[in-house]
Amino acid sequence: MTVERILPTDEAYELLGLTREIAAGELAPRAARHEHEGIFPRDVLRTIGRAGLLGLPYPEADGGAGQPYEVYLQVLEILAGSWLAIAESVSVHTLSCYPVFAYGNERQRKSLPDLLGGDLLGAYCLSEPQGGSDAAALSTRAVRDGDDYVVTGTKAWITHGGQADFYNIFCRTGGPGPAGISCLLADADTPGILPQAPERTMGLRSSAPAQIVFDDARVPAERLVGDEGVGFRIAMQALDAGRLGIAACAVGLAQAALDYAAGYARERVQFGRAIGEFQGIGFMLADMATEISAARALLLHAARLKDAGRPFTIEAAKAKLFATDVAMRVTTDAIQVLGGAGYVSDHPVERWFREAKVLQIVEGTNQIQRLVISRSLTRG
Ligand code: CAA
Question: From atom 8 of ligand 1, which residue's Cα is the shortest distance away?
Fold first, then answer.
């Protein structure tokens, strides 16, 4: 089912049309095999990059496509409906370009056309084995030595770990807490940056995260993004926008699961009728559709606040929380609609169910989203 959309420009309609073509022609036919075999789709990301989809919400003057965030998120939604790992890759790359875009000095910003041009992939290194939700407690250290910072520590759950061309490293240059954190932008081929083997994940196997060990990696001091001590603020602001990307991925995945389940319910006959004619199935589909529409509305509202330059942290947390919980419920119910057929890999719904789970965890667990929302209520 094609979702009826209201977009701000004719160009945006064309962009979504192009995205649908790429999703149907390049993504959908390959997703199941790559997910089964755990092969990272670098060539598909090159195609996506050449189509201009790796720099969508950044200004054209910086090498981006100058699209509003609400349009970019709808592109992600379409990609996620065909192959979640690709949509997540686009989202993480877009997140990884934020620090230089928002905080880079004039010389660093000159690299933006390269970062956004479609050939390079970025990674965002915040989480650590001992510090995930409590990001301000991170312990990867960068010590100034002449014209370099020498970085030691381990980052965890890094999307594009081992595949990225550049890494945003959030590291401690000062004392404890958020005020001691800085952001460095390092090239992937920096000696001492050592990506580990990909994790053996439940889903998203074509783009499994990896740990990155920093073993006295020397990063030129001129690659410090912003001042020393503003790294935590950079990380949080980047995540505000990134969480909307994850919400869009969730909506796309849920929509795909609903469409598949509804198609099955129209075809599958039991007791002499298509099973969708039974209220037990029909009402389940109706609830799935309603929740998806609500999730899409939440995320588009947050995106429009962002596009208008208004605060959107809380709305982004609500969208991420709600949309990813919806994706989990909808993919669970999609399996139920298919019955036993939903539990085997002949149909994609069991994969989508496994993939939905990670969306409740990445870029801030849904418990962290509730913390962000509740603090705004209790602390004002
Ligand atoms: N925007 C700007 N500044 C922000 C901010 C935001 N959204 N959130 C917090 N800050 C600022 C605060 O204003 C405060 O600044 P001052 O000290 O100047 O007042 C400072 O940051 C510290 O804020 P808090 O006291 O709220 O910090 P906290 O330690 O209580 O943590 C938290 C807040 C929301 C729990 C945060 O730690 C958090 O979001 N945790 C989850 C981390 C997360 O999402 N990790 C996933 C990373 S994804 C990854 O690494 C893998 C990948 O491949 C993408």
Answer: 236
